[in-house]
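Design job #97: recover the sequence.
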């Protein structure tokens, strides 16, 4: 079954802010599982836009500059991000 790809709300290079605490689900190497990768309010920049085909959902790779972890690149969904 074919369907139209849902267009992303955010674009590559756009500045965003973490709308929620972004927590390691166990897939981020070198950081404890359940550790906060980027806290609510942390600014970041979209570095890539992908697509989860099963759910027809845009997925964003966002580089956040954090105080505790330095720069981290985190996969985010639209509801986890807001514009500044």
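Job complete. Output follows.
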């Amino acid at each position: 079954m074919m369907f139209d790809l849902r267009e992303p709300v955010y674009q590559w290079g756009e500045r965003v802010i973490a709308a929620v605490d972004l927590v390691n689900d166990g897939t981020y190497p070198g950081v404890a599982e359940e550790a906060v990768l980027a806290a609510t309010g942390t600014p970041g920049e979209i570095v890539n836009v992908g697509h989860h085909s099963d759910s027809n959902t845009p997925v964003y790779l966002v580089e956040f500059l954090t105080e505790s972890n330095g720069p981290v690149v985190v996969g985010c969904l639209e509801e986890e991000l807001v514009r500044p």
